[in-house]
Amino acid sequence: MAEAAHLPMREVVRRAGALPGVRPRRFVPLLLPMWAVDVVAEVREAHSYDVFDRYLSRAVAEAGLRRPAELAAFFGVEPALVTRAVRFLVGIGHLRYDGDDLALTELGHLSIADGRRHVLTPGRRITLRFDGCGGEPVPYAHATHSVWLSEPALTLPDGTVFDPVGPAHPLPPNAVELLLNRPDTADFTGPAVPVQVTAAAPRPVWLPVYAVECEDEPLVFGWAVDGPDPYLRDVYDRHRGQSEAD
Fold this sequence. Notes:
It comes from Actinoplanes campanulatus. Helix content is 34%, strand content 30%. The protein is α+β, with helices and mostly antiparallel strands. The longest helix is centred in the C-terminal third of the chain and has 16 residues, at 230-245.
């Protein structure tokens, strides 16, 4: 495979050499084994609130107002304006009718607490990524801005050859479920947070990095971060530790 798919060795040498107190001894191009899982998801996304929609939702949640006529009187507006707003908020799942009374849904409560209008959208195709030595989710910045290879082979135009590390450990069967149940899911999925998914079988992918052996602790450089990457260093250390154990 010959393509400019990653940082050239000379750029990593320059970056490492510019770091104070760092004495590089060897630069090792590697391919870290990872996992990708393609899913079809219902995702939750946050948008800016329309001012009236937000205050109307708060009136239902905090002022105990349950009927459109009460809301119109409270805000001093035409009933038709409240009717349109209620119809919209019911349509996006923020309000529901309990008989003749309005009630705020869980999605509506979340939106009020966050100060942004959360909306559910079905049928979104996204790819979730996990490391190959423990099955932990890959942070969103790395998942989005890294180079991902479908085969464990990479040779740059300058002749740099990346050697695969591995193989990857099997991805835990509940890895996706564990990710969706985390309070910080958005740190790994980005602003479109999946809440329900249909997942395909995981497929292996490889992440090219440079491991820089130094007189002190090693450094790891990738594509997503302009400098030594603490996340990649952690993944590299786990792979290295597992290889030593094997």
